[in-house]
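Researcher: Let's run the pair from yesterday's discussion. Sequence first, then tokens, for each.
Model: Starting with the first of the pair.
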Amino acid sequence: MSFLEVDDIQTYYGNIQALKGISIAVEEGECVTLIGSNGAGKSTTLRSISGLTPARMGSIRFDGQEIAQLPPQEIVRLGICQSPEGRKTFARMTVRENLELGAYLRKDHANFEGDLKRIFDLFPRLDERQRQKAGTMSGGEQQMLAIGRAMMGRPRLLLLDEPSMGISPILTERIYETIAEINQQGTTILLVEQNANFALEVSQRGYVLETGKVVMSNASDALRTDPEVQKAYLGT
């Protein structure tokens, strides 16, 4: 059994079906990416896993436990933390206050400062700006903060939704270097990304989604050299 198993989930927004039987698997320690165009169902897949937009049908198992019908806070308690699309930092709160909120469900407060240090080691810019209001930071800095906030929950599975959206190429590169580092340190990652070049570079495996369905899956290196993927998503 895989660490995360998503089996034939169907998810709706009202009467509109967004996911039409998505099945994916993530092994412990992996970084797996979902790629596809806008509206393919990538973000909805993450939202279904995290319980924010529950699937109406299908199964989601995490470390052997069925979680498809659990409320979002219980899913976070199990160790699934998400850095959402659009970052959604708390603009009027400081960097440190945003990070503290990421640990709100934790009971092991003795390790809090050590975890903060780890975040500041990963993102030194956040350390420099601990007292700065999140809303005054650049998009790239807010993305670092959103990932750091999710990491403060000590995730066993980290869900990353469009980490390069609206960010300068230089900061995107830095953020992806850090994502690779987080994975190398042992955190399992499921990554949704429109920039397929970055996503396939940092991940070990990938799934291609189209209109709510998985149409292709393979090792990331194989997807990068696939002519159809190159033409549709890599601009080559």
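Model: Moving on to the second of the pair.
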Amino acid sequence: MKKIILAFGLVFLISCQNLAQNNRTTTTSKTEKTMASENLYQFKVTDLEGNEFEMASLRGKKVLIVNTASKCGLTPQYKDLQALYEKYSDKNFVIIGFPANNFMSQEPGTNEEIGAFCQKNYGVTFPMMSKISVKGNDMAPIYQFLTQKSKNGLQDSEVEWNFQKYLINEKGELEKVISPRTSPMDNEILDWLAS
């Protein structure tokens, strides 16, 4: 009788270990699939004119996403962003600007005012989206993707200030996070574009 109970106990223990191992594998696979399935192309946003903009339209392009502001010490970066866009837009590259008023109220204007400011002062022709929040409880879904490793598969980050840059590869995956103070014409960005 002891041998039967011992044998039964051993079989039960081995079964539990196999079940636990299978659960770990399944959980890991689901996590990897979730991380792999999230990319830029799942998002739809609204541009400054109120039109829907599908990020899926950017398939096959390198994308620089930047949160912008009109009354910031870094606002002159618009000039270099526009120069970068003009230089590389015919090489499957696009810049997407997201005005945000998250830092010291440095983007107080309406979408119409922001558009007029960008055009008049910097001749901006790259796509500008409607004003959103890039941090906090009301953070836009696209910025949740950009800042959360569980969604982007690369890293957690926090939007430090206006003009933080996110570099997205041709598959819609986050590749790099660039400091707000780094110029759009910095070698780090130029080398990425050339790669």
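Researcher: Give me one sentence on the second I can quote.
Model: The beta strands are 44-46, 52-54, 62-68, 93-99, 165-168, 174-178.
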